[in-house]
Amino acid sequence: MSVQKPSIPRGMRDFGTTEMIQRNYIFDTIRSVFQLYGYQPIETPTMENLSTLMGKYGEEGDKLLFKVLNSGNYIEKVNEDTFLDYKKLTAQISEKGLRYDLTVPFARFVVMNRNELSFPFKRYQIQPVWRADKPQKGRYREFYQCDVDVIGSNSLLNELELVNITDTIFTKLGINVIIKINNRKVLAGIAEMIGFPEKIIDITVAIDKLEKIGLVKVNEELALKGFTEEAINKLQPILELKGSNYEKFQIIKAMLQNSIIGTKGVDELQVLFNLIDNQNINSKYELDLTLARGLNYYTGAIFEVKAMDAQIGSVSGGGRYDDLTGIFGMPDVSGVGISFGADRIYDVLTELNLFPVKVKTSTKIMFVNFGEKEVNYCFSIASRLRMNGIPTEIYPDSVKLKKQFAYADAKKIPFVIIAGESEIADNTVKIKDMNLGKETVIGKDKIESYF
Per-residue pLDDT tens for 142-174? Predict the structure, then answer.
């Protein structure tokens, strides 16, 4: 048998012990804030039916879905003509796909479990998602999302709460962020203003790329989508709008005064900004009329969070969706949520060296192994320490002390306990502080109080 060179698919990553401890620090921080605000955990399957996923993320999102081949001889019933049309072929050979995000599966979950849920329902979810995207810095094919949503309430207090959650999380993590806020109703009003109300999706998809491809390319894309030169020119003041939040509100209010939906969006934004202004928010926040969030299901307020001190895309984003459950037969149930990208947050914390300096292992104490008699003596002590919540391990093999100490040093275990014949005879143990090099002898019955 030939030796195979081990590898993993592009856009996927392994995480070693140190990375996992750091990632768990992110997950634990985010989870603790979610719980502070009364959100409860759920999980949904890795795979969903393609019928659940397709058509919810726009045409470009559908292309990024990882589709799973049906089991068995899935090609057998496919005729030759079908191979010429990839959409027909996909429908016959693939019925399932890896989830693209956590929001659409959440909407499906709500509809399927509506009789067991109390509304408004506040849930959080921390799970991986998959996108067949081109791998690059900050963009992976498998990554974790940490979502928090409330469904069954139209109140803008929910949006305010999401802003507070966002601010709390990034303050705890030590990341300076700016929270960009817009409203899809405003974008619909802009589409009306330039004379193309039916092309709201094309507008949002194009301007959502503004930061990535620049104004000239966005205008070129709009032209290719059938927008007239006059319409594109009317859009320019919006795309280039500068000033304070107050100044932006005055300008957009005047521009959209003849649009009912646009005016409603501006009113919602003003209420939300008034609420935020009365909070003690550490993070910067701004009205950004170029913020579009390319996902089709958003209908109201939309959010995007960017790290101010690192060159990376958004680290968090979300918004209001008024009828996502309606697709699954439960209409007129509004929800709003925000998603935190754990992998991008990890990259930012690494780049800025913001992970807390602490022990890089969960183990606090290691007992050295001198042999069977000594291990039996140590085992009962180790059991008592574990019962008191102190992470403890015993080196498994009776080998040279140099090797055992090297193991403890490599794992950054702060304390090593030595119990040889003399310690056993005296009912004591010798504790070595690996950081200070200091040794202390105490009675074995006092070890819990020592730690």
Answer: 999 999 999 999 999 999 999 999 999 999 999
For residue 89, is pLDDT > 70? Answer: no
Angle, CA 171 vertex, CA 169 and CA 175 arms, to 5°: 100
pTM: 0.86
3-state secondary structure the chain: CCCCCCCCCCCCCCCCHHHHHHHHHHHHHHHHHHHHCCCEECCCCCEEEHHHHCCCCHHHHHHCCCEECCCCCCCCCCCHHHHHCHHHHHHHHCCEEECCCCHHHHHHHHHHCCCCCCCCEEEEEEEEEECCCCCECCECCEEEEEEEEEECCCCCHHHHHHHHHHHHHHHHHCCCEEEEEEEHHHHHHHHHHCCCHHHHHHHHHHHCCHHHHCHHHHHHHHHHCCCCHHHHHHHHHHHCCCCCHHHHHHHHHHHCCCCHHHHHHHHHHHHHHHHHHCCCCCCEEEECCCCCCCCCCCCCEEEEEEECCCCCCEEEEEEEECCCHHHHCCCCCCEEEEEEEHHHHHHHHHHCCCCCCCCCCCCCEEECCCCHHHHHHHHHHHHHHHHCCCCEEECCCCCCHHHHHHHHHHCCCCEEEECCHHHHHHCEEEEEECCCCEEEEEEHHHHHHHC
